[in-house]
Amino acid sequence: MKKKPVMIDVDTGIDDAMALVIACAAENLDIKGVTTVAGNVEVKDTTRNTLNVLDLLGRGDIPVAAGAAAPLARPLAKASYVHGATGLRGYNFKENVRYALREEPAWDFMRQVLESSGEKVTLCALGPVTNLAVLIEKYPEVKPKIERIVFMGASYHTGNPGPVQTFNVMVDPEAFRQVVHSGVPFYAVPLDTTRKAYLTAQEKEAVKEMAGPAAELVQGVLFSYGAAFVTGDEQLDDGQEVSTTTGNKEREGGKTCLHDPSTVAFLTAPELFTVAGPYYCDVECKGELTSGFTLIDKEDWYCKDEDEKHFYFVDSVNREGLKDLFYRSIRHYQKG
Ligand code: BDR
Ligand code: CA
């Protein structure tokens, strides 16, 4: 089977970990490397989590390179209240592995992979795009080697964790602006769509019946994802985490949205999605209340030239198909 070469940039993160479960089970993806960025938690934590998750999935052969510790121009705003102090609330690894970690930073590693690849490589970003912005700024000559960027985030109408801004854009809007204006085709799997890519409370229960390393990981993190009213998160010296929660707010009515998993699903099973565009897209970087809001010019108000329209909007998902892919991916590791 012809495999698509991809690199995945993550801020692991509960849903990033679940996305890696799908990615590593996908027979049509050739994962050339995984890079980490500060986002949900600090980069030292996203890197540790990523190395541990790949090892658990039996894919410790995939090289990992750590990237930016902070956004380009502002302090890091984390989401540990959603993902826990470690970034993977609900699952503790027995040990931390580091053997797959490269010495060079994420952008240098991405450049090496792009330059040495015989074909174009897709960059999939599941966190703030700081690493991609540094790559493109430092090594613009690699742009023709990028097939496209597939990104979780942006929105036309909605937001999380604010009314209009999506987390991965809000954390580093300056980076998003550089990347979305770079000329590289940019495919957003936006919050409007990932909100429709959910598991119901009943569908989550099915995961409890599954076995294997991925099932254990997902069972741990899925049920603690987004536990709201977290009043405190503390990481003990042995890596264990104590969260003080006062209840589960269930903003989504008991549903869990598969934000990052949908984005990887779009790579491996694009037939489950529809895509609109290209559009012109920009981002609010200075708004008093709206920094991180993506302006997607669907109605062509700005009358931009066609060569300024690089932004594609993944506008629908086959939820049943996605759910089946997720279940199938978790079961994949049962075999080993
Ligand atoms: C996005 O924000 C992060 O917290 C998740 O990992 C995901 O990438 C969802 O809004
Ligand atoms: Ca993420």
H/E series: EHEHEHHEHEHHEHEHHEEEHEEEEH
Q: Give the ligands present.
A: beta-D-ribofuranose, calcium ion
Uncertain runs:
none
The largest beta-sheet arranges its strands as: 3-2-1-4-5-6-14-11
Largest sheet: 8 strands, mixed
What is the number of helical segments per DSSP (H or I, 4+ residues)? 12
Notes on the structure:
The protein is an alpha/beta fold. Helices cover 32% and strands 21% of the residues. The chain is built from twelve helices and 14 strands. It has an eight-stranded mixed β-sheet, sandwiched between helices. A hairpin with a 5-residue loop joins strand 8 and strand 9 (241-245). Helix 1 (14-25) runs parallel beside helix 11, helix 1 crosses helix 12 (319-332) and helix 4 crosses helix 5 (130-138). The two termini are 21 Å apart. Bound molecules: beta-D-ribofuranose (BDR) and calcium ion. Calcium ion binds next to helix 1.
